[in-house]
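Entry:
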Amino acid sequence: MIQQAREIQLPLDEATARSFTAGERILLTGDVLTARDAAHQRMHDMLSAGQTLPFTVRDQVIYYVGPTPARPGHVIGSAGPTSSYRMDPFTPDLLALGLRGMIGKGKRSRAVIAAMERYGAVHFGATGGAGALLARCIRSVETVAWEDLGTEAIMRLRLERFPVVVINDCYGRDLYDEITPGLDSDD
């Protein structure tokens, strides 16, 4: 029997994040931030210099996506996830600031999984290769910071019933390990 998806309203508080179980199907509604490699590097550089980010990450979900330009009549182009492991060097510091969730694809490092356990955060998987379909769940797009980064700028997306699966819960469970034991992580 296929598990019914649980509908979650964002932002994501710690109690809700701690209620998730790896493998659970979720439909997210509300605002998420976008950030990919260049934005993560810029966040890291600012935090290392003792500067404050121009947005808050507390109780936010970051979607690892660099959407394509919108076609006429659409709010966004294709919006599929990028590989999460590329953000792993920067993620523990963001989790320490209260980041509650991430959406991407692929495995996370042991250090990120340990930080998710410590801070009560989750990693959601979105279906790679389905960016055009996922874009149908995005209702609005607003650039929040660093417009000079183009598609890698920090944007706020308004989601409606955006389908994800809990890949890593805050108890150390990893859906990929449960499905394919022994699969190496990108440490």
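Helices lie at 14-18, 37-48, 91-96, 110-119, 131-135, 175-179.
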